[in-house]
Write a sequence for this structure.
């Protein structure tokens, strides 16, 4: 039996209140402490006190409690009202630790940054939130100063539209791919090019992805996917192509570098291929979609993007993560293990056939779940940073939320009046921002599953949105050539 | 006026005048001056017509000269990045302008009301009875001619059994019965060999529809469970319509396009 929980006095005296035996369990199913007696009118705050005492952590962690997949909001009695309760058996209450920090909803547009002479196609914050980069149809990549919200550097070099940009996990390099199939590397501190142009692809670059920090703290390798159906792994220190992975018969739409040494690529030929990143050997082909696979998301996406940066430690003025390579690697590895837990990575893929599939690519060729319900093609899927919710943005003007572990449908978020292009989660997984072709952005609350704030202001379609990893800002760019913060 | 080749004949026989070539050269040299003298002196309607024609000629000349000049010099190709930048996820998709979307919606509503549907092969040549059905003569003296044999490819269902031969009016030969069709998905541009479920409509005649005759333009129903399509409710789609695009009796196979 565990240590005696500190039960407040007000709980004990009532004789005629029904009492229940409860057992705390975590998400993986392991039990915490031993079953004990509580009155049915207990509230989540008291449950939190008890649970924190059992967890014996230094600081109290905010928790959410679930009984049979229903969250306990007011009191245990109200949650059980609709369900049949057997007072003889022990009731399992599942607790979920929430993020310690809270991100406040972005409410207003602080500035409209003009400078690009053509539509802004891609926007990305660096992993620590210190720099902001945007790629545009006028072939330049611009770096913006976040403290003054003015342009900082303009990186010229590309000869066609800059389709995709990706920050290295240590925040020291930015890779950008263009419609001619060339990749440039830039230094955010000076705005100048690093090394040589990486060319080799014959058609345009659809997606770029760096190797995770915990595998290699130098951030050396970069994977690029292209319309020509091949994936190239580049060595950025030497400036040449290391491996070419060819197997897809049509355009590769997305590539993700997983944290377990596997590379995932989705393509218009309706398949997703799993490769070993060590030697570039094809491990598995995941089939099931009936049309192009547009997008993929990994459950550990967010932690791989931020590397060694911990959003809870963010300061008002974002700084680079300091420390030697070994320290960074350790930190990144710790954070990765924490998010991943005991199970292997999960992958969700969205396609033109209006459905999503949830896979466990490291183990199985068969999908875990097929998620249907959308009425038009799915443009982007994202796991929330705590991997509990999957959000999918579709051209049918809605965003659907699904459970991150089982793929069960949770809720539809409606409000946009035309296709939803891109979405982005806040660092604490409580808020979701979505940009659409109706020129507005909407901030949704993931807890209440309702619209929190509407952000109008763009003059034309919003092509790209991003929430900074420290939660302070949201950047969005679109067809009206200006970037809004 | 002399109509024959006597000048050429004379030249062949006796050759040219001794000063012929020089005279010719000088005459050609004078031509420019002659032309301008005439142009200056011309008046009236004749002048108008002549000047108009001459103007057009000069423009053509200038163009050809410019072209020749361009050919000799090497020009750096003008690299102007095209307008209309779109993100990677919109690149392979044709964007529809908003006005077009609205007008499309209205058009579709009107078509639904009228009962007209868009199919890949809208008009086909109507096939007459003499083409599709061949007369079979029966009887002791081969005088009776009430039997017909289908000369085109047809589909009979799984549980098909012939009527007793003495009474069957339409004969569908086994050699012309097909069960599978090569169906192309118009967007994916991929072709699959799918089993046929039935003949929905033959554009030539409802008689052919009931018989199961498949000709160009026929709408057939195929089993698409292989493709893995799913409705928004989560149910698997297993039958879809496709329209035949070739003449199966000539090719020996049925090619169709899926109607999405």
């Amino acid at each position: 039996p565990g240590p005696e929980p500190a039960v407040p006095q007000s709980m004990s005296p009532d004789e005629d209140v029904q009492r229940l035996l409860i057992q705390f369990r975590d998400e993986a199913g392991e039990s915490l402490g031993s079953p004990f007696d509580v009155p049915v009118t207990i509230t989540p705050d008291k449950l939190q006190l008890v649970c924190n005492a059992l967890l014996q952590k230094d600081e109290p962690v905010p928790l959410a409690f679930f009984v049979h997949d229903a969250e306990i909001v007011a009191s245990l009695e109200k949650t059980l009202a609709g369900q049949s309760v057997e007072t003889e058996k022990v009731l399992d209450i599942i607790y979920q630790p929430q993020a310690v920090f809270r991100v406040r909803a972005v409410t207003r547009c602080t500035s409209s940054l003009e400078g690009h002479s053509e539509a802004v196609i891609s926007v990305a914050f660096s992993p620590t939130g210190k720099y902001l980069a945007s790629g545009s149809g006028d072939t330049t990549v611009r770096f913006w100063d976040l403290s003054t919200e003015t342009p900082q550097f303009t990186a010229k070099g590309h000869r066609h539209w800059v389709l995709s940009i990706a920050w290295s996990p240590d925040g020291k390099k930015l890779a950008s791919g263009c419609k001619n199939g060339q990749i440039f590397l830039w230094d955010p501190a000076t705005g100048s090019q690093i090394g040589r142009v990486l060319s080799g692809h014959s058609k345009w670059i659809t997606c770029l992805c760096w190797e995770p920090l915990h595998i290699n703290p130098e951030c050396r390798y970069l994977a690029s996917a292209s319309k020509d159906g091949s994936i190239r792994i580049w060595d950025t220190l030497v400036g040449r192509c290391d491996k070419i992975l060819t197997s897809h018969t049509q355009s590769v739409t997305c590539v993700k570098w997983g944290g377990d040494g596997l590379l995932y690529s989705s393509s218009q030929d309706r398949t997703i291929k799993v490769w070993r990143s060590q030697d570039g050997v094809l491990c598995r082909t995941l089939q099931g979609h009936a049309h192009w696979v547009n997008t993929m998301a990994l459950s550990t996406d967010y932690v791989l993007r931020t590397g060694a940066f911990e959003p809870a430690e963010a300061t008002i003025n974002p700084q680079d993560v300091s420390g030697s390579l070994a320290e960074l690697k350790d930190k990144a590895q710790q954070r990765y293990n924490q998010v991943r837990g005991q199970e292997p990575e999960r992958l969700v893929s969205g396609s033109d056939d209006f459905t999503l599939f949830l896979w466990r690519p490291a183990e199985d060729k068969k999908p875990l779940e097929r998620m249907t319900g959308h009425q038009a093609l799915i443009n982007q899927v994202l796991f929330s940073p705590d991997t509990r919710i999957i959000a999918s943005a579709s051209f049918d003007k809605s965003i659907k939320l699904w459970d991150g572990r089982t793929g069960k449908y949770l809720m539809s978020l409606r409000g946009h009046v035309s296709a939803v292009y891109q979405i982005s989660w806040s660092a604490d997984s409580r808020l979701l921002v979505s940009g659409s072709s109706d020129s507005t952005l909407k901030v949704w609350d993931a807890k209440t599953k309702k619209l929190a704030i509407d952000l109008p202001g763009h003059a034309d379609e919003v092509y790209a949105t991003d929430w900074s990893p420290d939660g302070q800002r949201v950047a969005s760019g679109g067809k009206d050539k200006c970037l809004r913060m | 006026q002399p109509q024959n080749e006597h000048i050429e004949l004379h030249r062949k026989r006796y050759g040219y005048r001794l000063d012929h070539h020089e005279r010719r050269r000088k005459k050609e040299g004078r031509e420019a001056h002659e032309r301008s003298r005439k142009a200056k002196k011309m008046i009236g309607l004749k002048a108008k017509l002549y000047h108009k024609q001459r103007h057009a000629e000069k423009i053509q000349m200038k163009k050809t000269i410019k072209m020749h000049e361009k050919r000799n010099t090497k020009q750096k190709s003008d690299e102007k990045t095209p307008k209309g930048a779109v993100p990677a996820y919109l690149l392979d998709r044709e964007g529809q302008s908003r006005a077009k979307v609205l007008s499309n919606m209205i058009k579709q509503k009107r078509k639904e009301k009228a009962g007209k549907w868009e199919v890949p092969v809208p008009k086909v040549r109507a096939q007459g009875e003499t083409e599709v059905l061949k007369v079979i003569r029966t009887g002791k003296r081969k005088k009776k001619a009430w039997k017909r044999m289908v000369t085109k490819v047809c589909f009979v269902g799984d549980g098909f059994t012939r009527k007793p031969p003495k009474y069957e009016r339409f004969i569908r030969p086994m050699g012309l019965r097909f069960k599978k069709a090569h169906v192309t998905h118009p967007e994916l541009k991929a072709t699959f060999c799918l089993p046929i479920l039935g003949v929905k409509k033959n554009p030539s005649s409802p008689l052919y529809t009931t018989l199961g005759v498949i000709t160009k333009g026929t709408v057939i129903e195929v089993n698409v469970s292989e493709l893995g399509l799913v409705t928004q409710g989560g149910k698997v789609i297993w039958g879809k319509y496709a329209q035949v695009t070739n003449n199966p009796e000539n090719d020996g196979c049925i090619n169709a396009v899926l109607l999405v």
User: Anything to note?
Assistant: The interface with chain A takes residues 79, 81, 83-92, 187-188, 227-234 of chain B (CB under 8 Å).
